[in-house]
Amino acid sequence: MGRLRDGLALLALPLLTACGLSKMLPGPPALSPRERAAFDVPAPSGARYTGGPRVDFPVLPLQVWGLRYGLDVVLVSTHPDWDMHEYARVDLPSGPLWLAKDADADGNQGIVADLPDIEAWIPEVPAPRVAGPLVVTDKSTAEMADLHFAYTNPAGEPVEVSYRGRIPTEPSKPRNGNTMGHSRAAVAALLDLHLFRTGGEASIRIGGKEWPLKRLLGLVPLKILLAQTQGGFAIADFRVTPAADGGFTLVRPGSAVPWPTAATEAWTVVDGWARRDGPIVSLRYHFRDGELDRAQVWQVGVDVPITDVVFHPALPDLRRPFEGTVDSAFAVDIAGQAGHGTGRIRAAWTGPDTVSVQMIPTEPRWFADRPMETTLRYEADGVAVKVGRTAH
């Protein structure tokens, strides 16, 4: 029966495409190999500077993020208040960490995980999160996933989910995954679907009631088992001050506004790399003569950057005033897959103490609808940085 269901799902894909639902399907890289290779040729920003640095430490103009899931169950229910239900396993040296991610009808995702300091867990990802028991019963084998999840969702409703299906052995074809509108307000996300399979057997019980899965065209239940890496840019609110060791201290949030995460991070600066090392995810920004030319996210146990952003030409040194607006382009690789996303950066001083950095994604289409703007404000003892979504 499992093979039959998978076969029906594949047969349904031409129907889905014909009915306009192809917008939900993965796509190819945004850049050809030749286009992507052009980003690897170093190039200075070309900015015409009119003064010296305002601070002695590097300034982070954009917030990169990333996370790799070793296994991920994705279900879409018919519940009126909830859309997608995702159960993701993060593989760590200490063992698996499971996350329950429920998206409401507007696509806003919240995380439930059994973590004591969940607000400080991967704090660069501004997703609402709740610390609470997530009971996972895993009877899986090498060939079959057999999972049961029990927890209380962010709305306070008890949830029970069961899933059984064959473990995927091949990537999606193509593998540049569609975000399907989720977390649009918080992140500009790209996905690499390095394992992918539809079908299986699943049930969802919310608030004591069984909810059927949503069916595309009334035919194909939306249930997917995959492994994926997510990454890109995120909104942010942080403040940076110098540290005695030559690095800097970054505090989230940097203002009094409510924020879903909170952390005080120690950053080091060595050989042009500003980096924050973490138990799960490390962030690295590379500066050449003060100009940002690369930003990366590394995850423990993964031998390539899970997110790798290359800027060409480099962004100007935002510590120094410069004339006019300086333009750059960027390419984003996800989990070693080159050119999954691309776009433009525009940087300009907008006042004696403020700088604007506009991130304008252009491809693929689900990335292009999430532009952001960073405002850096130089203060007496540091730099305040805010990154927000913009309409265009």
What does this structure look like?
The chain has 392 residues and is mainly beta. Helix content is 7%, strand content 51%. The protein is built from 3 helices and 27 strands. Strands 16-17-18-19-20-21-22-23-24-25-26-27 form a 12-stranded antiparallel barrel. A hairpin with a 2-residue loop joins β18 (263-270) and β19 (273-276). The relative contact order is 0.20.
Q: How many extended strands?
A: 27
Structural class call reads mainly beta
Strand fraction band? over 45%
Topology as a string of helices (H) and strands (E):
HHEEEEEEEEEEEEEEEEEEEEEEEEEHEE
Task: Work out the helix count.
Answer: 3
Query: What low-confidence regions span 5 or more consecutive residues with pLDDT below 50?
Result: 1-21
Radius of gyration: 22 Å
Task: Tell me about the largest β-sheet.
Answer: 12 strands, antiparallel, barrel
Average pLDDT reading = 92
Shape: globular
Indicate the percent of residues in helices. Answer: under 10%
User: Could you tell me how far the N terminus lies from the C terminus, measured between alpha carbons in angstroms?
Assistant: 47 Å
Spatial arrangement of strands, main beta sheet: 16-17-18-19-20-21-22-23-24-25-26-27
What keyword list fits this structure?
392 residues; mainly beta; 12-stranded antiparallel β-barrel; 8-stranded mixed beta sheet; 3 helices; disordered N terminus
Short description, anyone?
By secondary structure, the chain is mainly beta. The chain contains three helices and 27 strands. The longest helix is centred in the N-terminal third of the chain and has 17 residues.
